[in-house]
Amino acid sequence: MTARSFGPVIVVHGGAGKAATDVVEARRAGVRAAVMNGWQTLTAGGSAVEAVEQAVKMLEDDPAFNAGRGACLNRDGEIELDASIMDGRDLAAGAIGAVKRIANPVTLARAVMEAGGPILLVGEGAQQFAAVVGIQECAAEALVTERQHARWTALRQECAESVGTVGAVALDRAGHLAAATSTGGLPLKAPGRVGDSALIGCGTYADDQLGAAGCTGDGEAIIKLTLAKTALEFLREGEEPMEAARRAVRELTARTGAEVGIILLDRYGRIGVARNTAQMACAWIREGNIDPEIFD
After folding, report:
1. Which GO molecular function entries does the Swiss-Prot or TrEMBL record give (predicted)?
2. Which structural domains are found in the chain, ordered by start?
């Protein structure tokens, strides 16, 4: 195909699964606001990395989503958070796992990336790094919503409204790609559990030579198939972006039976979105269309 001229594109998602009507509407509004936030960053000349961070931060601050404030509680009644970010320009990446009392884990993941040392920090090591780079901890209770605490107290494992992540992929005016993902993980998960959202190639991947992808759903299944990288390899084989996303979901479904969703961009800014779940809040904006398109 003939390469299109580069122009900004951003896609965000708010997690895959099934949710009550009021939650669905809140998530639609949330992804719309987040994609607009990321778009404004891109059109102001910001990088793809800056755009995905800003979009994901907005979703982390929104209690309708399973990330940051509003994340689900683990077996011990605590919130532990995972996040990652990747720059397709040079394959720089940063990730954090099982962190507590951090309101915006994606910003901590970006700090890990920019430090240029280890790609993944978890638990106490990640907390110590946050202090070194000046990211302040918040009170643990500041992240807990009444809805999630009630679910944990009642031991209701109706995880459809909590399973999933939030994420974003973007292409900037310079033709560079980035991806970011953030999550609270599974309701009642084992303390210390780290899922796909913190693992580069599984929940998040970006490479200017291929594309950018973000995944949501059953983290263990996503890890088994390194789903984000697998979907982008389908682009290398010549698949169109939408078919690459669908093929990745079909393959995971066939191999594991798990529920997942994926968003991706190819290096020309073409969009792919797929899921095997009842719903996935998703929105995107591309040059020439500044009205967020909603997919769910």
Report:
1. asparaginase activity; beta-aspartyl-peptidase activity
2. 9-289 (3.60.20.30)
* Residues linked to residue 67 through DSSP beta bridges, in sequence order: none
CA distance 162 to 98: 17
pTM of the model: 0.90
Q: Is the pLDDT of residue 5 over 80?
A: no
> Known binder of ligand: residue 77?
no
Paired tokens of 255: 């191999």
Mean pLDDT in the chain?
90
Cβ-proximal residues to 189 (8 Å cutoff; 6+ apart), any chain: 72, 74, 75, 80
Please indicate if the annotation marks 196 as binding a ligand. yes
Token pair recorded at residue 20: 């009550």
Exposure on the CB side of residue 295, measured as CA atoms within 13 A: 20
- Nearby residues of 82 by Cβ (< 8 Å), 6 or more positions away: 95, 96, 97, 98, 99, 105, 182, 183, 185, 194, 195, 197, 198
Q: Output the six-digit token pair for 26.
A: 């809140």
Q: Is 218 annotated as a binding residue?
A: yes
Per the CB < 8 A criterion, the answer to whether 110 and 204 are in contact is no
For 191-213, the pLDDT digits (tens) are 999 999 999 999 999 999 999 99
Find out whether 219 is annotated in a ligand binding site: yes
Contact 187, 152 (CB under 8 A): yes
Name residues whose C-beta falls within 8 Å of residue 165's C-beta, 6 or more positions apart in sequence: 13, 15, 66, 67, 181, 182, 183, 197, 203, 214, 215, 216
> How many whole angstroms separate alpha carbon 120 and alpha carbon 72?
22
Q: Which residues are catalytic?
A: 165
Q: Quote the CA–CA distance of 176 and 268 in Å, as a whole number.
A: 10
192 assigned ligand-binding residue: no
State how far the alpha carbon of 171 is from the alpha carbons of 3, 206, 255, in Å.
14, 10, 31
pLDDT at 3 over 70: no
